[in-house]
Amino acid sequence: MFFTYLRRELRRRRKAALVVASGLALGIALVIVVSSVSSGMGKAQEKVLQSLYGLGTDMTVTKAMETSEEGGERPERPRFSFDAQAEGSGEEQSTDHVMVQGFQSLADSTVDKVGEQSGVADAVGGLSLQVVKVSGEFTRGRFQQDGQGGQDGGQGGPGGAGGAEPSEGGRVQGGGADFDVNSYSVYGTDVTEPKLGPLTSSRITDGRTFKASETDAKVAVVDSAHAKEKELETGDTVTVKDTKFKIIGIATAESGDAAADLYLPLKQAQTLADAKDKVTTIYVRATDSQQIDSVKSAIQKNVSGTTVTTSADLADTVSGSLSTASSLATGVGTWLSVAVLVTAFLVAGLLTSSAVSRRVREFGTLKALGWTSGRVTGQVVGEAVVHGLMGGVLGIALGLAGAYAVTAISPTLQAELGGGAGGSGGMGGPGGGPGREAAAKTLEVALTAPVGLTTVALAVGLAVAGGLVAGAFGGWRASRLRPADALRRVA
What we know:
Elements: H1 2-12, H2 14-53, E1 59-63, E2 92-100, E3 106-107, H3 109-115, E4 120-139, E5 142-145, E6 150-151, E7 170-173, E8 176-189, E9 202-207, E10 219-223, H4 224-230, E11 237-240, E12 243-253, E13 262-265, H5 266-272, E14 278-279, E15 281-286, H6 292-302, E16 306-310, H7 311-315, E17 318-319, H8 321-358, H9 360-368, H10 373-409, E18 412-417, H11 435-439, E19 442-446, H12 453-479, H13 483-488
Parallel strand pairs: 8-13, 10-12
Antiparallel strand pairs: 1-15, 1-16, 2-4, 3-14, 4-8, 4-15, 5-6, 5-7, 9-12, 10-13, 11-12, 17-18, 18-19
Helix pairs in contact: 2-8, 2-10, 2-12, 8-12, 10-12
């Protein structure tokens, strides 16, 4: 009887049902689109952050920034020295200066201390370096007397040897120096732990990656952009501070910029920088991603002199259109969804209550025939829930269409990462590992709007809730009807 009467009433009042369902559908569709776009923002931000600290990394540990006091020790400055050439003017000379990024390092024994903390699944140390290469040549000048042809003898020229003092009325022409300065980043990776660290955010597109046995091997993996710039291929050699390394692979960053231009085994990087048993960054993976804050607190408490930075901390430094769009989606979009939903629920409730008022004769007659108030109320609530489910189906269809449109268009967002100047270390900050180089650049990320089962389940829940709210309005109105009201309206 219930379903028979329900089906008949829905057919009779198709227009009213469509109005209520459409209002709920609009609110539900907006919730789906906002939720999917917010999820896409989160995934885009994860791509940006992964380009800095690698896949699987929940936090990094670096040396706490020391407050510089007046008269205190100053950071090392690069110095370059070249031999004077007595003979053979024009011979090219070059020298490399290898510096620890940020001039902040930790003892590699700290890696073990961090790994022993409760909630830490794995901890791996890495050394981030900056190499400044200066190369060029000196050219000796030529002495020329007034009114006479030039005389090549090197007198007075740089690197000149054994010549007589220039006489009065003569001068030295030409000569000087022409040097080029080139800078690139190097990351020393623990080859025995290949699943953690910045190199995991890149994919080997040629050759191979490091083997666990190559802790002391003179081998290197080169970022594809650096390899293209320097015209390097697998099998070639690169020279760093007079040490030759064989290129065994080319790595391409999965998203954004690579963490470093050149990757070396950790021990080789420590030797180049004269930083034996030192690391700049410890990459940490937690046993439970929900307990990251407690793991961070434990490390800060038990490992002194360190700064712990989580991916959430680094995410706060993201700016640009990605950050703006994310704020709009989570802020304005969320509140707009709530406002539309509340409005849709109220409108559905009022329309249902109004429909009950127009059915006074009908419900009064049913009561006169023996229907109880509970049965009448249940009939009204049942109709309202069906309206809500209809609105849910329509809303899910509209929401999926909107999310698909966003994904199809894939608007490009820009992300600018802070921490390139100043800060206390950590991922992407000074002394915080190879992310420091990438953090100073602007990355572009394509926005998608994935729709998960949770979002669909939320939409169904909202549809049922909307029907119940509307039914509550109508049911309350129906429960107050009396058979006498119907009799007074009989013509």
